[in-house]
Amino acid sequence: MQRYKHILLTTGLVIVCAALVCISVRIYANAVSAGILTKKDELKVVVPIVDIPKTFRGMGENVLHDESNSLVTVFEKLRKIRKAQLSNNMLEISRYTSEPKDTLRVLHIGDSHIRGHVYPRTVRDMLAECFGSIVYKDYGINGATCDSYLNSRTMQQICTYTPEPEDNPLLSQSGDSPFEIKDNGTEDKSVGDKKSDNQIFHGDIIAKHHKPDLIILSFGTNESYGRYYNADEHYKQIEALVKALNEAFPGTPLLFTTPAGCYKAHRTSYKIRMPVSNGRHSKHGRKSRRYKTVTRTRTTYSENPFNAPCAATIVKYAKDNNLAYWDLYTVSGGRESACRNWTSAGLMRADHVHFLPEGYTLQGQLLYCALIKEYNK
To answer: For 88, left (φ over 0), alpha (ψ -120 to 50), or beta?
Structure first.
């Protein structure tokens, strides 16, 4: 008897489960036919859960601000790549490069935080893992401000950059590299050989076919680190850099990020007397001592008071010009908690300006999540 009851119970559960599946399918079909559930919903990506240190307090909402929808072309391209990926369709390969035509190309420029590569390449790796067809080039200069990028040599390096295999995780794994094009349209993969006169694959063509779809600008730390901070001067420097980038890459959308915050070093000098033995003995048989004054330096750190106004200037410029921005300073805790959060978690280096690899990895994860949230809208 007990056995029959078990069989009946199992059969009933199977029937209920089958009924629920049928109801779910019917609801899904009705939603699609009614236009409630669109194809965009099918292309959404799960936002990963970031492991935030337990010591972090007062964090702001991790969102990307783009009220003017200036990044709409970027997310449309990502959806096209995602759609081809989900349907197992091969993307069309460009005749000028070994990459698909629908590859999303990102150029991330900034100061030493970008020069260290960990922060931007965390974003790159996460985007590539999700969408596949990504080329992410990062270019950073130690001690740079927006004004540092306005010289002709730096702008030329940015405008004619050639993506290397390491900038595209897919190419670095497969070992492929851009090939050369002859004037008859044939491919010449002997890149290392001496170029003949009929080869036309040079810097201008590379720049043309590798024009970034998105430029991310990460500045602010060095602007805020001086003895004084002038918000109007900082605003003008941002404006000059944006003008130069618009001339070099017309129509390419920009995304600003604010710095995570830093401390300022204060060095104070003090003097101490140190005994020095002259090697002579006194009448009591002990060595006589002389003293000399030695100057020592003590370094202490305090939160940079210009962190907040610097981040506010970047946000203000982005709002005034209908550009997208991601306020890492506010996400990290803002004026009240940002600096303390990074130090309490042990993620800053000894100079209290730069971060350990784990800190830059966390920043990259947060930026990726903000991008995906905006993509899913």
So the answer is: left
